[in-house]
Design goal:
Radius of gyration: 26 Å
Number of domains: 2
CATH superfamily of the largest domain: Rhomboid-like
Number of helices: 11
Distance between the termini: 63 Å
Number of strands: 4
Strand order of the largest sheet: 1-2
Largest sheet: 2 strands, antiparallel
Order of helices and strands: HHEHHHHEHEEHHHH
Strand content: under 5%
Helix content: over 70%
CATH class of the largest domain: Mainly Alpha
CATH topology of the largest domain: Rhomboid-like fold
CATH architecture of the largest domain: Up-down Bundle
Shape: elongated
Structural class: mainly alpha
């Protein structure tokens, strides 16, 4: 156990598994008591229903109503979370899990906006697939020693796991979309992490420069507007030239678009 407790991401792994197990037990107790509590945790197919229960965007990714669903999702999560934590000690597993889950939710809602579906979505598959694709993109060439199989590239294991997960979606368009959303989000996070530090700094600097330029223009426009208003207050509106009047109108619209 010491080997796992020394793992940098051990707390996150334990927390995520514990939350999934706790929600499963809560739903089980609710069902035994005659309360359909799983509906309050699952993500509705109807976008309007999502607006009424916005918390389900988060709770669906820790909700399983069947034990085998919970078991296999947490098994996959355990395997790939441990691999990810060993390769990148600084990885933030909880954030990565949430990112994959939110990506799955976004894809599920988008599909149901185009073609109204029925039922609801629950399960941590999208979040777990996000972690799988993240590790596959960033460390696909890492070799793992597998019982009976010998040395296998991590990328191969990720592809096999993703195919199994997609086949297990049951043919539902919404479920497939959620799975795909989780996979895509994890891959995008990995590509962002692979981006050279110099490019990241350049992008950040450019964004900062754009913001600074916008603030500077805003201050300059305010100063020019104040100057024109002072001239009107001192000499009257008729003292403005036609060019100044056009400039006054343009500044007024820009600074107060309403």
């Amino acid at each position: 156990m010491a080997a796992f407790t020394d793992l940098p991401g051990w707390r996150s792994i334990r927390l995520i598994i514990a939350v999934n197990a706790a929600v499963f037990l809560a739903i089980l107790v609710g069902r035994l008591a005659g309360a359909g509590s799983d509906a309050w945790f699952s993500l509705p197919a109807s976008p309007l229903a999502v607006l009424k229960r916005p918390w389900t965007v988060l709770t669906y990714m820790v909700t399983q109503v069947e034990f085998l669903h919970l078991f296999f999702n947490m098994l996959w999560f355990w395997c790939f979370a441990v691999i990810a934590a060993r390769i990148w000690p600084e990885i933030r597993l909880t954030l990565l899990y949430l990112a994959g889950g939110l990506g799955g939710a976004a894809a599920y809602i988008a599909v149901n906006l185009m073609a109204e579906g029925a039922g609801s979505l629950c399960g941590s598959s999208a979040a777990v697939l996000g972690i799988m694709s993240y590790t596959g993109v960033l460390a696909g060439n890492v070799r793992l020693q597998m019982l009976l199989l010998g040395s296998v590239r991590l990328r191969v294991l990720v592809i096999i796991a993703i195919v199994i997960a997609l086949l297990g979606a049951g043919g539902s368009i919404g479920s497939l979309a959620a799975h795909a959303g989780g996979i895509a989000t994890g891959a995008l996070c990995a590509l962002r992490a692979k981006m050279p530090a110099g490019i990241k700094k350049t992008i950040t600097r450019r964004r900062g420069n754009k913001v600074a330029a916008a603030l500077r223009r805003h201050r300059e426009d305010h100063a020019e507007l104040d100057s024109l208003l002072d001239k009107i207050r001192i000499s009257g509106f008729d003292s403005l030239t036609s060019q100044e009047r056009k400039r006054l109108e343009a500044l007024s619209k820009r600074l107060d678009p309403q």
